[in-house]
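#structure-requests
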Amino acid sequence: MMHIPTQFKKIVHNKRAQILLPAVMLAPIFILVVYLLFETSKLSMTKVRQQFALDNGAYSQMSATSGYLNAVAMVNGPLPYRVMQEGARPAKLVKRLGYEGDDEYTVFDAFYMAGAFPVAGPNKGTGQGGAVKKFKPSPESNDWGFSYYGKTRANWEKENPSSSAGSVGTEDEDADAYVMTIKEIADNYFFSGTAIALPNIKDYLTTYLRTGSIYKSHTYSYKDIVYKSRMFRESYWLNTKDCTRKDCGKQAAATLDRYILETVPFEISEPLRFYVTGDYGGASDKAGTYHSGSYAIPIYPGKDLGTKFFQFAYLNAKSRKLLKQLSRGVVLKQKYKLPDNRFNINLTQRYQPYVRNTISVSCPRRGNNCVWPNPISKYSVKVGP
């Protein structure tokens, strides 16, 4: 029979020893739990960081897309309309002596009724500039009603517009030209070349040349930002720093690359024709006398302006199809690598973790085309699970 020393017996029966021994036995388990909590926290933080990087990158990339679409919609209608609304002077044109018509017209009407630019609002049937100019679309409205006067540009007001020079011309010489001021007004009102017409024609041409320049600048910027999902990859890299700039978010970027949109500028290369009232005696802008009838001023875009004359931009067929898909939402997935752990288990290979979201770009219109015709700058971005 084994002899147990008396001293050891005392230790065993000691109350402190009864607590210490289980504690010593549980210490490895406690350490293991701490390791598990620490490693689990690392996994959780990694996923949160990857999810944020995916959401932030996708939102940044699609914000560039929605911003570009809104900018194109603005130059297609609201911008030139507002400039002509504020800049066309004088407010009212004077009738020539002997003309018995009751209509009142402005410089705004002389351009608008010829189809020189689209306007917003319901008062477009009469051609009375005073009525049109009073309309200010509500910011809450989802349809600002931008269109050209009557049927002057019927072939333009389509998702896939076609050119039709001379669509409002009444003279044989107008067959191959775009009429930009109405001949009837120049015939019967003092729309004098020197005093009234020429300064406003210059302002009109300048407005659309600058509008075209703005469109080209936005297009260049958009293509540079979204080229190979540059915006998305940069944002993803800044939020994770566990990959190279070229490889960050590669899987999701491949999906985003399929949703780069294209717009087509609608430009005029045919001659422009402006009808004005002839000056006679230096007083053709006054009522009563010196109205010498109308004559045409031709402008050749290539020769006189040095470029084709921009009017608006529209989405090509492929981009319109992509926009319909974007309105429903596009699912993005991105695999990522889990950090190493103290147990030397390759969790990335075993579980193949990934993050995902759904990104959409939409405007309040059926077909998700608010660029052209009837433009309205109300595209927005939404990121969901």
